[in-house]
Fold each of these.
Amino acid sequence: MEVLNKLAILADAAKYDASCASSGGDRRDSRDGRGIGSTTGSGICHAYAPDGRCISLLKVLLTNWCVYDCLYCINRKSSEVRRARFSIDEVVQLTLSFYRRNVIEGLFLSSGIIRNPDYTMEQVIEVARRLREDEHFKGYIHLKTIPDASPELVERAGRHADRLSINVELPSAASLKALAPEKDAGGIERTMSRIHLRLQAAREARREAEAVRALPGAAAAATRPPRFAPAGQSTQLIVGADASDDRAVLRLSHRLYRGQGLRRVYYSAYSPIPHASRALPPQAAPLMREHRLYQADWLMRFYGFGAEEIVTEGGFLSLRHDPKLAWALAHPETFPLDLDRAPRESLLRVPGLGVGSVDKLLAARQHRRLRRADVLALGPLARKALPFVVAVDHRPRAADLQALARPPAEPQQAALF
Amino acid sequence: MDLPLRHPADWPGFAAQLPALLAGADASWTQDVGAQAALFGDAPTAPAGPWAPPEGWHELGRLVAMHADADRYARLLAFARRLQREPGLWADRLDAERRHLQSLARQVSREIHKMHAFVRFREVADTQARGGRRHVAWFEPAHHVLRAVAPFFVKRFAQHPWAILTPRGCLHWDGERLSGAGPARREDAPPEDAGEALWLIYYRSIFNPARLKIDAMKKEMPVRYWAHMPETRLISELVREAPRREARMRGV
């Protein structure tokens, strides 16, 4: 089979993985006299597809042949999908060729399970090893870890990769057992913990090495500890393929962020796949549900919200209101806040005010009193804050709040052409 | 007299002249700024202290100087005058003029980021070049960002020769040295090469027709960039086919 055909099949098979992040790696470049590539630590989206998603990495499977039969997966053993398998060299050459065109930051490689987990993991690692050691590729590499791959292979994967991920797949162990009989939630979390411990050890070793280098008289090029996935680990789970509610999803995320130190949890709204099993819902989960989960996730990570504080209705996030607004509407006793006096952590809870906006308000109020115009000056979304704040020239009216509580108009998709 | 600004985004040149301008301006100097000359005539009305730029001024000015707006230097000068007289102004990021400058800076940062992202190289045979080939791209930046993007591409593609051609000027890297050149024309850019088909098939395949979000795509990848990105010519077809492909995914 031609590479062109393989690419069509194995990119199509990989598109259900939401992550395309290329951020969080260390900084390096190709000015050392050999190889190609650089990472700046912040990630670049080189293109956007009409699904609105960023294309940052060459995201492919090494093969979509698979011995597992996970019902939600298009590549499951019993699926009638077309199959293909890249050679290791084909993936290496594709990565380099795309990279030279400047259409990617690097590679996100995953694979169906062929023969057994360790064999598959070895093949995936070999692609990364060749890119790093033979081609001196300095770009970004994200490797999907195969559940139950041996610790020694996880170690090798982390040496070459910027990021490792292992998908928890579903919000509960029971759902996983029902829909992915060969996968085991315990095994997935074990691998995740192993990576977490290894990441902590690598961070520790780096700190120590830096301390040694900082000593007076230390050799400038004291040995650097071996690198291990400097961009950490992430995971993905599918929402809407089982009966788990948003509350359960958020509790799981909270546990993964706190307990396993994950950089990101990705949520993927279930969408029906060709040749789907009857055990799955015939309908796609609303994309709005996925969007609301990301918003709630954001509140937990950057706005100081606890998982239990996120407001749900019967276990589900409101589709009408974003989670920050839903929280504010549920806590009228907290508002209105005085713009001139409210502490930072309270202002961060005001709908329409992001971290940047709050910091601008705090800086300005050091020198003068804040006014309604200052809120409006923050940008179009900040108008949402007006019903929740008071200023020297502004008192919210009850009608403003009622207007917010009314359902928003249906969003219209503008025509492209 | 030499032009006081060596090129349109010459922030160091402007910053070096700024104390003199604030102290009363040198009229003969300003005449050489061309279209911007009239804007420099506005001398200070009240005596002000010596010019001590606040922390962050150079970062802001460097970006604003790259903006295509003709009055960018005049705005920087006017704001520097206010900074001399109004204590606390620099901390007030909600001041209207400050917001305007920040907005110019943001547009420039975004243009730099988008140029890093959206430049598309094509391979051309070149017997003179190291390795017998060069990678050449055509791009039309909206602001004077060519110099600012150069370090990114040099670090990333240090070992092979490449060129970025634009109507505002060109960058050439031969594997060791970076050089600039005057404006290029679109016809100077290379045609589609053999490897492009792979990228196009990837773009087509990674798109999920069940999740059409055209506005989100256009927000991050504005239409004005599409002309130099080969994959964008697939978009109208992908959008048109999406409902049919999505129905097939659901098996109906």
Amino acid sequence: MDVILFLIFAIIAVVSAINVVVQTHPISSAVSLIGVMGSLAVLYLLLGAEFIAAAQVIVYAGAVMVLFIFVILLLNAGAETKRGRSFMVQLLGVPLLIALLGLLVFFVDRLFPRSVTVHFGGFSGGSAQAVGRALFTTYLLPFEVTSILILIAILGAIVLARKELD
Amino acid sequence: MHPITTVHYLALSAALLLIGTVGVLTRRNIVIILMSIELILNAVNINLIAFSHALRSVDGQIFAIFVITDAVAEAAVGLGILIALFRNKETVQADEVDLLKW
């Protein structure tokens, strides 16, 4: 069951991610990115990270993607015109990429023990209670600093995007 | 059937990271470049949560929350810059922005 769920949603995530990069129109990319975020939320649930899965759906698939689609519609961004790539890139790009991925996975496999199996419900330390306790005790200072980061980001976004008044 | 291990999640993360990198390097539409950056940050999150599960500790998930927060802040500021850029240059293509090119 876990294997089937993992395979289904991992394949959806990878195919949607490839679609994000391949599509020429930004709206198609944005919709594919929502697919990636949703399937990743299910994978987080399999890992026992309930709170992160909920945050993933609400923050990424909700807020961030609405922001992206809003900006795409606002700027009326059309499809990207294809521009020719060099012969070497067309010939070697994808095989080299797959070789690099294989190399990465090979080394990760060698370095990390295979003993830790993942099955649904195997780890329940990701509830909102556990995350909140860690966030407000051990990681209180980083949490508060993050609020300053968000404040600066809000100010920056408003200052950058406002119209110049004369 | 083999059970799913942490290595499988790390492999998925590596795949998303590489796809996102390709998107950043090859696409010219700035909106899609920003989306590819989101893909890369999500790949990081998979790693953090997979290790959180492997080590039976909640710390990795806290880091994932911080990564999500950073990603949202980055998207907001990036899209703000994009709107300011569009107001000045009327384009969202990264290769048509050559204000600093001599």
